[in-house]
Amino acid sequence: DKVDLVIEVRDARIPLATDYITLDLLLFPAFPVTNVARPGLNMLFRIIACLSKHKVDVLHITNSGFSHIFAVACLYLGITIVGCYHTDLLELLSKNGGNWFQKSCIYTKELIDTYVLDSCATTSKSFENKLAGLHIPCQHIIVTAVDTDIFSKRKRNEKLRKKMMFGDEKGFLCVYVGRISREKRIDICVDVISQM
What we know:
With 196 residues, the protein is an alpha/beta fold. The chain is built from seven helices and eight strands, in the order ββββαβαβααβαβαα. The strands form three sheets. The chain has a four-stranded parallel β-sheet with strand order 5-6-7-8. It has a two-stranded parallel sheet with strand order 1-2. Strands 3-4 form a two-stranded antiparallel sheet.
């Protein structure tokens, strides 16, 4: 009787077996490639209706700049809500010319999240420490490391490796899997690897 429920801006990749509602899109310069939901009463009512329809027990959200609208819906309905900080919004704003007012709004919002959400998590010990330094505690770390049983050296495909290395057998191969957008900070990976 479980239903995967996706509350997101319409995305063609969502499987048809998944129930979803669509949210209005907000253009946000700091997230040039990312869909950001526009807050508003209409959207809040859509979220509440969807959560009520499916009798949701727990809602997991990403602690984005506008996740508070989900917190309001869950507080109203008495639903347990857990969130995950996986994007350093303050650093992202700094890198994209965000002003002090924008930064203070994001900081205040993230601090409030620690009080209104039932639990908060992040994806690394270093980010947990950074958030703790800002008085934003996280109760959990969701490990995102590579599963070495699946991605093992013993399963290496030498022909594919040679092709990806353009014939350089002594080179260092690094593969990135994910969305290529500014907030993923792929530039840091490129800088680090170029120094190796």
